[in-house]
Amino acid sequence: MNPVDVEVNDVLEDVARVLRERETGRAQNYRSEVREVEDVVYLMPSAWQNITTSLLTLDYALAPLEAPAPAEKQGFADRGVGVFKGAIKRMIQKAVYWYVNPVVAQLHRMHGATTRALREMADQLRIISDRTEAMEKENLASRLNALEGERFDERIGRLERAWRQRASVEAAGPTPEGAPQVEYRPAGRDKVRPEPGTHFPQFQFDYYWFESIHRGDRELIKRRQQPYLEYFRDCRNVLDVGCGRGEFLELMAERDIHGYGIDIEDDAVQFCIDAGLQAEKEEALEHLAALPDETLGGVFISQVVEHMTPGEITELVGLAYAKMKPGGFVVVETPNPQCLLIFASFFYADLSHVQPIHPETMRFLLLSAGFREVEVKLTNPVPRNQRLARVVVNDPGRDASWVGELNANVDKLNSVLFSYMDYAAVARK
Fold this sequence. Notes:
Layout lengths: L7 H17 L21 H17 L13 H96 L35 H8 L3 H8 L12 E4 L5 H8 L4 E5 L2 H9 L4 E3 L2 H7 L5 E7 L7 H14 E12 L5 H5 L13 H11 L2 E10 L19 H17 L2 E9 L1
Parallel strand pairs: 1-2, 1-4, 2-3, 4-5
Antiparallel strand pairs: 5-7, 6-7
Helix pairs in contact: 1-2, 1-3, 5-6, 8-9
């Protein structure tokens, strides 16, 4: 074939075929800077990603041939076609250079600026984290002092109530004749066995005092229980089972929600009464059984079911359903056994705890009693400074897969060990 016999359409088709072969047919090493755009694609919006993809495709197409020419002996016509193809390629490269080069330079500048901004943000976040931890440590002493002051006030209140009860007993008159007299008896090896019918005063576990020490201050409990108010908005006659020091009763009073509480601890009931809250000393199952059906606007049960046996929990849920009005909500809050930290921190510290209740077990009990729309809400997350920290490596090297695998395992451990310490099962009648 003579050069003069070459058709332009045939040449353009050959050029298109070569470009397609270079794009999809073989791997090459490219010297163009456009390939570096791949490193910043993840930072670009979709429009820039489309531009980047087009530039990469163009770069693959315009990359120079590095493989040796075919071993076949080329004739004059073939050499002429090659020269013409080379000229066409150089023309295309020069034509698109002035469009590609400014975009590539802009992408590189954006990449550098974004990298610097991300590093500065990471440094600032580390500084803020360090300052937050320092502030938490500085405030720890004042928080402890405030907590000790509140506990001291509670102990003074207990002594005052005990003094009033003793005064009322003394006002009732002397001990009837014939009652057994208590005298001092030694202990240990010199212990004397009591005679039949003789009674001695026994040490009693003061649960109200124990709870005031280990549960936390009232303001903290109120902040944790405040989200539950939304389920009792505009309700009347809401029952707080195990009201304790009346944190939820106080929250309801602040929102004009009519309700009352019951508890088996004398000190807890008296504390609520002294605070102007409506509370009664009642056992939960007996109180609910004595109520008429469908008279309660809602039932709130916080940190109670873990003190009950399985049979008592089943009876409690069934009575709550029978005594509630249709459409009312029941909220059952209890420690979350899916967070193993509770067993190492406070659960077994309470002698009155019987067993933890799994969230799915509580869901099943509520559904079995007739409730609907049962939802389990995780509450009281473990503080960030007590969780396992994820690994951050500035220069992980070429094989950085171990960093992601390690952090994935850290997340799994956090989800089991340090997740949410409580949960609330919310259901509707």
